[in-house]
Amino acid sequence: MSKRIFALFSLLIAASMLLAACGPAASSTEAPAATTQTIKIATQSPLSGDQSVLGVDIKRGAEMALEQNNAALLALGFKVELTPFDDQANPDTGVANAKQIVSDPAILCGVGHLNSGVMIPSSEEYHNAGLVFVSPGNTNPKITDRGYLEVNRIVGRDDVQGVVGADFANKQGMKSIFIVHDKTAYGQGVAEFFKQEAEKLGMTVTGFEGTEEKANFDSLLTPILASNSDMVFFGGLYPQAGVLFKQAREKGYAGTFMGPDGMDSSALVDIAGPTLLDGGGMVYSTVAGPASVYPGTAKFVADFKAKYNADPQPFSAQSFDSMNICLKAIEEAVKAKGGALPTRTEVANAVRALKDFPGITGTFTFNAIGDPTFASYFVIKVNSADPAKWGENAVIETLSIAPPSK
Amino acid sequence: MKRFSETINVRELLRPIGQMIAFSLGGGAVLSLVVVLLALLLDQTAVGQNLQARYSVSLVTYTLANLPQVLIDGLTIGFVYAAIALGYTMVYGVLEFINFAHSEIFAVGAFVGVEILIALKNAGILSAASLGVAYLILLLALLAGMTASGFLAVAVERIAYRPLRGAPRLVPLISAIGVSFFLQDIIRLVESLTTGQFNRIIPTFGNFDERLIFGQLPLGATTVVLGVQIKSLIVILVAVIMLVGLNYLVNATKIGKAIRAVAQDRPTASLMGIDVNRIISITFLIGGTLGGAAGVLYALKFTRIDPFVGFFPGLKAFTAAVLGGIGNLTGALLGGIVLGLLETFAGAFMSAFTMGAAGAEYKDIFAFGILILVLIFRPNGLMGENVSQKA
């Protein structure tokens, strides 16, 4: 009896594996309709897990852009569909998804990712397949420094963001800084740029530590407290940072917290609560200001609220722009080809060829490696312990800086 | 009433308390001695000078000033590990296989407790609660977590392990790993469907986040505030009560005798009229209950939980059980305390002793390195040989 059940179980498992393997592939074998052809645009962002707060809104931003602006392509005889993928903020999952994306010939453009550590290996797949991606939030320099035609971003870079952060700390009179990072390409990267600039400016770096710990920061806090630093800088994302900051305050740390754009989520306040306002408070640098700082986003925010019944998280407006860039580039490529379906390479070239594309978070022209010719950087101070008021945090500094020339 | 006081075995109540005090003091003293000696040795070398340059304080002062706080932190996490380790060790004692699903049973306990607190917070009860009520609410969350985890553990045993009892020992092990993944995704699914997100934050209430300050120790230009959070005390206190209760149950009651009998020799125990299936279920119930309580305590202490929250504490607790000698209750207690102290000591002092080259991130490597050393010299764990009694 139990043998039979066991056999049944293994059959079931085998069947479900088969299904999982075939499911997505089946959709790509559909023959395109004679009159309207289908073009797909992929998004990749964490839709589940810790960072899904940001990742889901990246998908939503792209979704909304597609709904609002697909008319031009529809008029040309192309139906555009969104195929969202969940990279779980995990490089392995991102690459597995990327393989699936590039194997679907209907996908001509992509929006993503959130995490540089996921984007870097995944974009190797896009590069090999010639599929263009526009990133709404990846800031690691390596994203574009490889010089791939297919990889573009509409936000700033960590080698500038780290410098902006350190300059700001210096201006605030911080003398000693303890730096912690999360050991990812993004977190460690921005922490290292911050450290270099801080040392150059003559601030003392009292410690530089990486940690993957998510819950118990007791032992890491011993050297932090002993160093009596004016500031603790965390290079990483809010789920870890929130817990670290909270525990540091609980142990009596009274200085200032700082972090990069990975701090920019209302979920940070959810975790750390009023501890962000105590002592020296908390500031963060970011490449994506709150939607309210951009003149063009009022309609976006209103539409987003109407559709999803929540305020957009950071990077959602950037995702909206990224999708519009995809749509525009495909449209241009179609027109250049006299109404025929363009190849991936033609779309990739069309993205680079865009001049002064009017987005809601800026006007974008890509340079030779896919960085925007000018990117905005902000320093923001946390103002309220209420997660609903995250969007009202005070913008202390706004800078527009060109990417460093090679 | 008179009979009750006669039948209660005071010795079995006091013995584990004595053991805990001895283990905590012993482990703490040995490790403190090691770091202080190291500090004295290295004070005048490059290591000491490096620290002097970074924090403008001598290595000895740094070590001494931080020592009391590190001891408190280490003991707190150590008792959490011990409470989880008991679940592994009880099941191993009785069935001789490792219940890898225990870490998820721990996670379920944490989620049930936290969800109840969040529901109470949303109902407005939490913020209005006076101090006494806050403690009652915490007790309620603890009991709910314990109940859920306890029954879940029994269900897991009934569904995933009992049908495989005659199979080779690796088969239930694989089944346990499967259950572990299954439960992780069930938590994820249920939380995603009901709340839309599966990272939960325990609400702030009562005075649990407050810190009792004992004093200040001077440390160069700054001072180290010596104190303990009320929630850390609660964690230790609840863990101690549970450990004492478990010890009493196993060593001084009829059920405990039956558990021990089943652990020693299952066929013979069943010949003596013991319902083996029932006793195994009870073992899982107890182990799961302890795991659930540990989960709620963990959430209280460390704020944030997700469906994968059980993995690392589970792994560490399993390690603690092996370190102490798996299958042995006292060993699990010792292993948990030693492992908690070891990793906290390593995390806190490695950076100072290695001139910042290897920081807190290497604490696990260090702690597990020690584990390997111990197991080379004592393959059965610290308490594995000298106690023949299991479960």
Main sheet overview of chain A: 7 strands, mixed
The DSSP helix count of chain B reads 15
User: What's the multimeric state?
Assistant: heterodimer
Q: Overall pLDDT of chain A, averaged? A: 87
| Widest beta sheet: strand line-up of chain B | 1-4
CATH topology of chain B: ABC transporter involved in vitamin B12 uptake, BtuC
By CATH, the superfamily of the largest domain in chain A comes out as: Response regulator
User: What's the domain count of chain B?
Assistant: 1
Shape of chain A: globular
Question: Please, could you describe this protein's structure?
Answer:
The complex is a heterodimer of chains A (406) and B (391). Chain A is α/β, with parallel strands linked by helices and 406 residues long. Chain A folds into 2 domains: 37-156 and 295-373, Response regulator (Rossmann fold, 3-Layer(aba) Sandwich), CATH 3.40.50.2300; 158-286 and 377-401, Response regulator (Rossmann fold, 3-Layer(aba) Sandwich), CATH 3.40.50. Chain A has helices spanning 2-28, 52-69, 71-75, 91-102, 116-129, 142-145, 158-171, 185-200, 218-227, 238-250, 267-272, 298-308, 316-336, 344-353; strands spanning 37-45, 78-86, 107-112, 132-135, 151-153, 176-181, 204-210, 231-235, 256-259, 282-286, 357-358, 363-364, 375-381, 394-401. Mean pLDDT of chain A is 87; it is low at 21-34. Residues 386-391 of chain B have low confidence and may be disordered. Chain B has a single domain, classed as ABC transporter involved in vitamin B12 uptake, BtuC (Orthogonal Bundle), CATH 1.10.3470. The longest helix of chain B is centred in the first third of the chain and has 37 residues, at 59-95. Chain B has a two-stranded antiparallel sheet with strand order 1-4. A two-stranded antiparallel ribbon of chain B has the order 2-3. Chains A and B meet through strand 7, helix 9, helix 10 and helix 11 of A and helix 4, strand 3, helix 12 and helix 14 of B.
